[in-house]
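To: structure desk
From: M.T.
Subject: fold request, one chain
Message: Could you run this one when you get a chance? Sequence is below, nothing fancy, just the single chain.
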Amino acid sequence: AASTDGGTTFTHRGVIARDAAATHTYPEGTIEQLPDGRLLGVVRHHTWSGSAWDLATPRQTVSADNGATWSALQDVAVSFPHGYDHYDDNNRKLLGVAPALTRMPNGVMVLSSGRTDNWVAISPDGLGNSFEQAQVTYRNFPEQDTGAFQRSHGSSGNGAHAVVGPNRILQVGDNCAPSWGCPATDAGFQIDGEYRVWKKFV
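Reply: Done. Structure tokens follow.
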């Protein structure tokens, strides 16, 4: 949706992501303007396994007409040069809730996301074709997890970030996912089982 009156009212502009076959869902998204004026969108992505929705690699798309139409979705390319070793029950890397994009004053594009670990990656040229130098910025999950979200308890991976300088962002997130993240039956948290919000400068 777009506003031409400073956010007082919004009108429908276009659809960023939709799957007519209903085997993929895209429940969250973020948009940022590229240096050439196009819009870059990154969306949370789930696939249908036949019995449940599984979290998958985030996808990205570009609009050249101010959001009216969007290019075909493709997986976001994220590289963790120092490794990334937290997996879900299907032994896949968890990469993708609450994505957030920001183009910094220095031109670098920042992407943050998570589940359960929060992470940040950058596109140095600001184009978002790939994101590199990714690193985990916050991790809190229990070594002994007795819940239905096995190895997904602890922090939810949801978060946000804001620019606080030419080369610096403030990132925030939760230590325990509200209500379900840190039940008393879990133990061995990387941080602890307390419900609170954290902040970190990157």
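Reply (cont.): DSSP finds no helices and 14 strands in the chain. Let me know if you need anything else for the meeting.
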